[in-house]
Task: inverse folding
């Protein structure tokens, strides 16, 4: 494997052949032990089933029974066979557990897998995820299959393919004798994945924080079962309210689940989501809870254990549904001296490309002041409210950085002459950020040593706006073990509240020659920004645009439509001479 630049020159590469199986021993040097090879034909419709996909560690050290079936050939076939399980799976070497006649129930005649009496496979030395048969024989038009014990790992492989490979003729060098192959994705191991703990602020003692919890479940959670999230000794002191809000992109919990959040005797927290009558299906769940932060610093990130269990009322007795996952928490930091948005003038807003419309790329100027001087290169985290998104590379090229820190660029290009020297300290070039990476609503900025104590600095950073103003509309900075007070965000220029549409009738058009239904519709909305009137030297003023779903057509005559426009509750409509209603060309 080699990487090359745009001109084809090699940059870096592997010294040896990339192995087909990471477990292959160095002593195994035949061609089929090395990299993958081609096969003449696919073999399809093979099923892989197990009686239990839970990891070996939570099943009382029991291997699962894995069935591979059906395998059918149109002609008599004699060849070698290799079946490779995903990395981490381990085939049993107890051959008394090998069942060569799983097809007996399905059809007659019953023929053992691989030949008369059934042919036992082997597990090659050190390669315990591979079964090999040096020679097998199959009659035409018979459904063959077998069952054998396999140890399920803690999780599916993360650095190699999650695939079972079945190769007929793997020992043959000639492609014509390398007869058939199949690649079958493995079902998911019953382990929780993608668990994560997030937060809005990590300032010590902050009473109005929000914490986010994410997890992906593999197995349905039945009645009285549920999800338990518990922190370790480095998570002591959090105080949750027993309420939650589902976040965008999450699957929905059933409406009747209950959530409890308690502080245990040792001051750690335990959150329990319990199923009442409607099971929680496999899915990706993200929710947020209100919480008060600990009143003392935590300098070592805690750990949170996520688990799903059959009877959460019996905690701490555990009857596992999916295997647990432990994920890191976060430190609790002292208060930063100051952080907030720099109050821009209208001229500065234009020069910095400030843009508060929904969905647009925006530029914001943030100021901050430290209590303690950084002694080494450290990361600053800028955390925006939900819905905002920073660019993956938020630093940009050195010649024209997206992240502006210099005196001549923070408030617009070539604005150093109007730098607010009485308000802000100049951010020197030798302390310019080394990197900036965006991770959703967070931007992580790497800053070298050099920022001074009790000096107020400012920077400008690009961020994409959400479509609506967030409910918890506050921003935070975290740097040098100091966390800012969450500071007030800005409103997105969109309608305040949710516009309301009330039709006169819900009847549908009948089509054909029937006269279409004309349906007066009442639309109520509250704009965030004033819609400007027509300037004296312009043809028209601001615009209110209404777009209906596909299939609807606004009624108009020569593109001019009839409306009654008035302030809600007013007895008189706005005069028609003060506005013009037009339908666009597409109606």
Result:
């Amino acid at each position: 494997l080699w990487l090359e630049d745009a001109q084809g020159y090699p940059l870096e590469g592997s010294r040896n052949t990339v192995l087909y199986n990471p477990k292959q021993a160095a002593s195994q040097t035949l061609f089929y032990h090395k990299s993958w090879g081609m096969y003449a034909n696919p073999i399809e419709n093979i099923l892989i089933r197990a009686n239990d996909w839970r990891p070996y560690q939570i099943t009382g050290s029991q291997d699962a029974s894995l069935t591979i079936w059906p395998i059918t050939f149109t002609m008599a076939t004699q060849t070698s066979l290799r079946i490779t399980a995903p990395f981490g799976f381990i085939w049993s070497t107890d051959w008394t557990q090998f069942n060569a006649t799983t097809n007996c129930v399905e059809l007659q005649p019953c023929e053992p897998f691989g030949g008369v009496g059934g042919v036992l496979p082997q597990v090659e030395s050190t390669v315990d995820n591979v079964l090999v048969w040096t020679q097998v024989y199959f009659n035409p038009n018979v459904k063959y299959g077998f069952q054998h014990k396999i140890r399920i790992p803690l999780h599916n492989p993360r650095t190699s393919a999650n695939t079972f490979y079945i190769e007929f003729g793997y020992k043959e060098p000639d492609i014509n004798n390398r007869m058939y192959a199949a690649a079958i994705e493995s079902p998911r191991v019953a382990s929780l994945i993608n668990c994560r703990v997030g937060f809005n602020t990590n300032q010590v003692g902050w009473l109005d924080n929000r914490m986010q919890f994410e997890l992906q479940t593999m197995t349905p959670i039945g009645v009285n079962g549920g999800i338990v999230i518990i922190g370790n000794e480095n998570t002591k002191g959090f105080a949750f309210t027993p309420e939650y809000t589902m976040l965008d992109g999450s699957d929905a919990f059933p409406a009747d689940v209950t959530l409890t959040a308690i502080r245990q005797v040792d001051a750690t927290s335990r959150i329990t989501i319990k199923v009442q009558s409607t099971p929680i299906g496999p899915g990706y769940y993200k929710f947020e809870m209100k919480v008060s932060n600990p009143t003392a610093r935590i300098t070592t990130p805690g750990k949170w254990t996520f688990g799903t269990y059959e009877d959460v009322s019996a905690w701490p007795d555990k009857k596992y549904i999916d295997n647990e996952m432990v994920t890191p928490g976060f430190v609790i930091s002292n208060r930063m001296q100051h952080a907030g948005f720099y109050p821009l003038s209208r001229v500065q807003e234009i020069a910095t490309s400030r843009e508060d419309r929904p969905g647009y790329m925006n530029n914001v100027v943030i100021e901050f002041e430290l209590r303690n001087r950084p002694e080494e290169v450290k990361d600053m985290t800028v955390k925006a409210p939900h819905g905002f998104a920073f660019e993956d590379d938020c630093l940009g090229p050195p010649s024209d950085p997206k992240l502006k820190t210099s005196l001549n660029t923070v408030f617009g290009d070539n604005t150093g002459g109007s730098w607010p020297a009485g308000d802000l300290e100049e951010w020197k070039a030798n302390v310019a950020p080394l990197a900036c990476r965006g991770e959703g609503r967070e931007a992580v900025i790497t800053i070298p040593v050099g920022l001074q104590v009790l000096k107020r600095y400012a920077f400008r950073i690009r961020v994409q706006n959400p479509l609506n103003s967030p409910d918890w509309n506050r921003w935070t900075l975290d740097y040098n073990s100091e966390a800012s007070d969450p500071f007030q965000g800005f409103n997105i220029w969109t309608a305040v509240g949710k516009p309301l549409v009330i039709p006169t009738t819900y009847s549908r058009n009948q089509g054909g020659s029937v006269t279409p239904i004309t349906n007066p519709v009442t639309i109520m909305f509250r704009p965030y920004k004033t819609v400007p009137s027509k300037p004296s030297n312009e043809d028209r003023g601001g615009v209110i645009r209404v777009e209906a779903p596909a299939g609807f057509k606004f009624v108009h005559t020569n593109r001019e439509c009839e409306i009654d426009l008035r302030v809600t509750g007013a007895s008189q409509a706005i005069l028609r001479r003060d506005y013009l209603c037009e339908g666009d060309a597409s109606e």
In short: Helices lie at 346-351. The chain has one helix and 34 strands.
